[in-house]
Amino acid sequence: xxxxxxxxxxxxxxxxxxxxxxxxxxxxxxxxxxxxxxxxxxxxxxxxxxxxxxxxxxxxxxxxxxxxxxxxxxxxxxxxxxxxxxxxxxxxxxxxxxxxxxxxxxxxxxxxxxxxxxxxxxxxxxxxxxxxxxxxxxxxxxxxxxxxxxxxxxxxxxxxxxxxxxxxxxxxxxxxxxxxxxxxxxxxxxxxxxxxxxxxxxxxxxxxxxxxxxxxxxxxxxxxxxxxxxxxxxxxxxxxxxxxxxxxxxxxxxxxxxxxxxxxxxxxxxxxxxxxxxxxxxxxxxxxxxxxxxxxxxxxxxxx
Amino acid sequence: xxxxxxxxxxxxxxxxxxxxxxxxxxxxxxxxxxxxxxxxxxxxxxxxxxxxxxxxxxxxxxxxxxxxxxxxxxxxxxxxxxxxxxxxxxxxxxxxxxxxxxxxxxxxxxxxxxxxxxxxxxxxxxxxxxxxxxxxxxxxxxxxxxxxxxxxxxxxxxxxxxxxxxxxxxxxxxxxxxxxxxxxxxxxxxxxxxxxxxxxxxxxxxxxxxxxxxxxxxxxxxxxxxxxxxxxxxxxxxxxxxxxxxxxxxxxxxxxxxxxxxxxxxxxxxxxxxxxxxxxxxxxxxxxxxxxxxxxxxxxxxxxxxxxxxxxxxxxxxxxxxxxxxxxxxxxxxxxxxxxxxxxxxxxxxxxxxxxxxxxxxxxxxxxxxxxxxxxxxxxxxxxxxxx
Lengths: 304, 388
Known about the structure:
Low-confidence stretches of chain A: none
CATH topology of chain A: ABC transporter involved in vitamin B12 uptake, BtuC
Number of strands of chain B: 14
Largest sheet of chain A: 2 strands, antiparallel
Mean pLDDT of chain A: 90
Helix content of chain A: over 70%
Mean pLDDT of chain B: 91
Oligomer: heterodimer
Number of strands of chain A: 2
Distance between the termini of chain A: 42 Å
């Protein structure tokens, strides 16, 4: 039971991480209709900047403060230089161009920082473990990630529902031309949304730095799950991204733990472990397929 | 006039002929220089080049020309490069491949064409067993060896209940098989993770619940960094010791892991602190040339070059008699930086393997210190399958 609760927390933490990434991606996809494969690169930029700032200052908060604006600015530059030319083009062109961006950013980080992964440590004040459940110490840094993710969810909710900018973003998602006709500078709005998405990706990257290897290409491994999240959640919907991310995080984590146990009930242990591991790595995609059969436009489609 | 022209032509031919005789021996290096794993190939190349530079561009007194190309960790690209070396450049000696999947595509093909291949890293089991070949030499290890060392160490240390973990792909399965060949205790868990997995929280929670005496893991590259960091953050490194092969603990990776790796025991055939004259000379020269501590990959590249040097010297740079060249390499008449070295019946190393520990140095860096010899004159498990 203890183990189950601990795994629930792990799933929650992975879900929060995925939410930070998918929130930006789903907005860009929903509003600009652009498939941005390079979203993982912005996550990598966040991690690299944070790790570099951490090396020079030794302070995690300063590292975070350096990573967020840089990721946002890099995102906005990418939007202005590359993506703006792709809005009216075919999805295939977008995929090609943004895939090119992935290669570009991966090589760029290799040129600037070299091939060796960078080091980034957990801040001292978060390096301990907390026994929220007696008998199962849990890293406080992971709890902090869950907390930050929840705060971001609340912030995005307020931004989208209570502010003028949020209203314009929602309107832009429903009907771009009409919003432009009403006198909203849609280009500026696009750049801002893209910057916001990049900022969130950078935040996820900076927070992943102490847990993961900060290395060239680190964005791609999480990018696929991020796409699964927005397909499940419904493209363009922040609420969908949140629910989808938590679902994917929980299924990914609990699947690896529960499925082998489950199979052991009626299979020999060695076979159960093997089959369980294979099934667990498919679980997320099975979930996606199931959701798509039940609701072809995802759980919370942004516009009917 | 006509005669003068002819004379010049003949003279020209003569000079051409002489130049041909003095042409350096070509060595083709197919290695991995791009991708995340590119630093492995870089170190092998740098180690190899260092041996050449220390002789002023020669090996064993014979002028050599090293050609290097990047396979990008893709078997088909490796085959392409090897083809070009053989057909266009007439290369008779090759080396350099880092990864077993590339080696399995390239090596059988080149040795069939009577090219000598000296492996400075990859040692897949088929090439040590059923597919062994007189033209194939491995100067590093058979893939299982370093895992076997960790297994033997676990047995010697009296661990009775181990949790073992590797990614779900051929090398991961081989790693755990190699480990279990010498580990005699019980298993608290045997887990295969996804290849390129980045988050290990689920495995770590299960591991804590299983409460083993120690954990053996093989997670190369970034996966190992992730695992070690998360292991330390979960507070497990204070309670449960970690074992592994040297691959996740080379001096270039340790900087990215930091304190989380301190205390990990890992199996290796070489460490920069091994006490022999050849090694001290190598480590000092490498430091001077490249400004960093050599990794085990660098030592393997260096040994490959020195092995080749000893053979070229014996045949006096003459590659026309392949039998003589093979015999000369088989003698392994060089002083390896790892100490005693000789080839077994399958032309793989028969060597000592050690356990080393990751420590923090006085100047705040991280490195390995040799702790214990686990195997003496260790022979790989596939030698008996090799009929040569």
